[in-house]
Specification:
The protein is an alpha/beta fold. It has one domain: Rossmann fold (3-Layer(aba) Sandwich), CATH 3.40.50. Helix content is 48%, strand content 15%. It has 8 helices and 10 strands. Helix 1 (10-20) packs across helix 7 (171-182). The protein starts with a strand and ends with a helix. Mean pLDDT is 89; it is low at 185-196. The structure holds adenosine-5'-diphosphate and guanosine-5'-monophosphate. Adenosine-5'-diphosphate binds at residues 4, 6-12, 128, 131-132, 168, 170-171, 174.
Length: 232
């Protein structure tokens, strides 16, 4: 399972996993009430539902977990997860921190692996979100605020909910690390990363990595607020 602040790279990593190893990984397509971004197709990126439809299906018990994020509903459909598991593949979930906690409860270790994905620095996180061009400046600011809270939450839940922190610097390396972790720590192929394998960090190192990340993210967010305020 992949959890990350918005812009961490979950969607990109999940897509790569499916493309590279379609016989090993299947993706659970979540449901959401948010509007589709350009290029997002219904049933592929998400099942895009109206709020009443989402709520009806939630009442009917169709979700393994569901939560509100930035004013919209998101949820993992039991049918999606079961379909992938029936085909004998690992199911990849792309969820925020509340969902990660709930799914971890439903699939305790070792039935699930929960990775928290962060970019190499908060600055890179903001740059990647900007480059993605899917949110307005106000929405971007809101997501950075949520990201700070999410990284804080993940820091407290390392070892409990999260097995690993994955630094998504070079995509190729990040994908190889996920494959290696899922395959039980074996090298996902290629190797040659020396001591840079972020997925192998000790819990104390992961905690301090996330503490530093939160501190820097707060300072980046404050600067961003100042500059957005100035440009108004
Ligand atoms: P999330 O699903 O966690 O919100 P995305 O997968 O949409 O994040 O990634 C956010 C942006 O960062 C996207 O524009 C994506 O192309 C870019 N990105 C993701 N991983 C990398 C990487 N390793 N190197 C460079 N850019 C990346
Ligand atoms: P986005 O709008 O950027 O696609 O997603 C916003 C946030 O919702 C991301 O952190 C993403 O991981 C999370 N998310 C997507 N699908 C689900 C889901 O099914 N359940 C939960 N809990 N979170 C989800």
């Amino acid at each position: 399972m992949l959890a990350a602040p918005s812009g961490g790279g979950k969607t990109t990593i999940a897509r790569e996993l499916r493309t590279r190893a379609p016989e090993t990984f299947g993706y659970s397509v979540s449901a959401t009430t948010r509007k589709a971004r350009p290029g997002e197709r219904d049933g592929e990126a998400y099942h895009f539902l109206t709020r009443p439809e989402f709520e009806r299906r939630r009442e009917a018990g169709e979700f393994l977990e569901a939560t509100e994020y930035a004013g919209e509903l998101y949820g993992t459909l039991r049918s999606e997860v079961e379909q992938v598991l029936r085909s004998g593949k690992h199911v990849v979930l792309d969820v925020e921190v509340t969902g990660a906690r709930q799914v971890r409860k439903a699939y305790p270790r070792p039935a699930s692996v929960v990775l928290f994905v962060i970019p190499p620095s908060p600055r890179v996180l903001i740059e990647r979100l900007r480059k993605r061009r899917t949110e307005s400046e106000a929405e971007l600011s809101r997501r950075i605020g949520i990201a700070t809270h999410e990284v804080e939450t993940a820091r407290r839940e390392i070892g409990d909910v999260y097995d690993r922190v994955l630094v998504n610097d070079d995509l190729e390396t990040a994908v190889r690390e996920v494959i290696a972790v899922v395959q039980g720590g074996r090298d996902g192929g290629g190797g040659g990363d020396g001591g840079r394998d972020a997925a192998q960090r000790a819990p104390a190192d992961m905690t301090s990595l996330l503490s530093d990340f939160v501190r820097q993210l707060r300072s980046e967010a404050a600067q961003l607020k100042q500059s957005t305020g100035r440009s108004r």
